[in-house]
Design goal:
The relative contact order is 0.12. With 251 residues, this protein is mainly beta. The chain has a single domain (2-250), classed as Methylamine Dehydrogenase, Chain H (7 Propeller). Helix content is 5%, strand content 51%. It has a 6-stranded mixed sheet. A 4-stranded antiparallel sheet has the order 7-8-9-10, with no helix packed on it. The chain has a 4-stranded antiparallel sheet with strand order 11-12-13-14, with no helix packed on it. It is built from 1 helix and 22 strands.
Amino acid sequence: MKKILFLLIIGVFSCARETGSVNVTLNGSYAHVVAVENYLYAINSSELITFDISSPDDPIEIDRKNLDINVENIFLSNGILFVGSQQKLFIYKIQSDGIPVLKSDNDYFVTDGITACDPVIARGDYAYVTLSSRGSERINCIRRGTLFNELRIYNISDIENPELLSRLNLNFPKGLAIDNNYLFVCEAIDGFKVIDIEDPNSPIVLASIGKFNTYDVIAKNGLLMVVCPTEIRQYDYSDINNISYLSSIKL
């Protein structure tokens, strides 16, 4: 129960922190706020805002950048900020003064006017993006009737020139989490999938778990928290070939 409550708190606040060169991020993939030492980075629907929080009782806004309409999440990895909108993946490098500098913005679609819901996470040389034509009551994910429901994997070893490595069709993919060589991807109405990403050029679906509504997931040391509209489900994935349901908490 303590593990459940601990991760529940983290998921609800959706906040990540990175100290020095050690990344201690643990948050859902729909985070809107991340912290790095004395700086806090927050997004709204169209902006990336930087605060100096060296005095926690008196945060000071020090930078504000216009991005795009329908910005959806921010993810922190090794001093790099990844910001997902419904049309682009933005990559910012945090400078010594705390100000993020744009290194690249990458269009998802060639045809203008097409959008899709888009969380992004990253680890090492790779970024993982889900694009979904299914949103919520508050989010219009798609225009012009074109359906995009897929996982995309990018090589980000050169953050100024990310390279799309692979695409995998899924069923309305939403939030995602990574642990070792495994990616856990929520599907809006079909539970979640477990994907082997050892070879980023050829991701392989290992399992499809459940038939329930879900939108985000947190993975840590064999414990998986799956966020649903009315509950949080806990799974044990210490044996990746035998994932077992443990319990749930009503929201």
